Amino acid sequence: MNKRIRVTSIFYSIQGEGQHVGVPSLFIRLHGCNLKCSFCDDNLHRGDYTERTFDEIYDSISKYECKRVVITGGEPSLYNLNPFIKYLKKRAYYVCVESNGYSFANIQEADWITYSPKEWYEIEEYGYDELKFIVGRDTDIEKIVSFETDKPIYIQPMNHFDKPDMQSVKRCVDLVLQYPHLRLSVQLHKFLGLK
Ligand code: SF4
What we know:
- This protein has one domain (4-192): Aldolase class I (TIM Barrel, Alpha-Beta Barrel), CATH 3.20.20.70.
- 21% of the residues lie in helices and 26% in strands.
- It has five helices and nine strands.
- It binds iron/sulfur cluster.
- The site of iron/sulfur cluster (SF4) has 11 residues, from loops.
């Protein structure tokens, strides 16, 4: 991999999802995705991007005290990110990556991998630290509730781009109450009006 990465945005916010909810994090959003989900809440990943070197990205994030990075997309594992992840870890960052499971090999150096499969007929059993399913008002949940893993399974409402969808939130709340091995991930940042 050449040492340039297609970045659509870098921003500092609060992690609103999954096990690390509430943790201040530096988000690096990458360009492109192998899927075209109808509910995709970030078409930004299909828009403009700049090719940035590792050092240029480091220049952008090192002005913050925060030492936690979340690489998201789009689909980060379209690219072999292991050299970049190692580069960040050498500089004392804890590196999380969010992925739809396209290639866990391309992100295997990460400290934490969130796997959010979108094609549920084929759910990977290994290669990640937490599992996140997006559930909307009409989503078929049979496969989710029967899936077995020792990793935490989060149910996350299919929210609007910039705010919660309370019908989906309610459905997810009901779901975790009915199936207590599941956990709720509400996208806290959307309740707080954060990026
Ligand atoms: S996998 Fe994620 S980023 Fe890609 S199209 Fe689906 S929702 Fe959007």
